[in-house]
Amino acid sequence: MSRNKDRLGGHKPEHTETPTQFNPLNFVAPTEFVELPSKGKWYGENHPLKNKDTVEIRFMTAKDEDILTSQTLLKKGIAIDRLVENIIIDKTLDPKSLLVGDKNAILISLRASGFGNIYDAHVNCRECQKRNFVQFDLSKPEFVGGDIPEG
User: Fold this and answer.
1) Residues 6+ apart with CB under 8 A from 50
2) DSSP secondary-structure letter at 88?
3) How far is CA 16 from its chain centroid?
4) Which DSSP symbol is given to 44?
């Protein structure tokens, strides 16, 4: 006779609530709105960004970082477009149809949210050729230009 015979029925807890478990398949990445330098002024009438000030993107994930480091995508020159396509919420937007300034604003926002607001760089002075260390705060973008003079 088995020693475990009496254990099969066992003690049942009075309260049987199923604990909530993390399911990575249900994970929703947070999003943010990126201000477009063009403010949507220069897109065609049927473009989804026509007269839009912002575009919604999701934060980068490990999958997006893999896109940035894919040697195949980098050699083909499509890594950036694939990344932008992946993180834009509105899937009707074609990254190739974005104005350069708007695409750059999206990439800068991705860089800031994915790796931090501070961007360290060494910049050579055009006048004296001295190499200077500069820190840029990507959370405070400064848009310069973008308007075509009237007349």
Assistant:
1) 40, 43, 44
2) B
3) 41
4) -
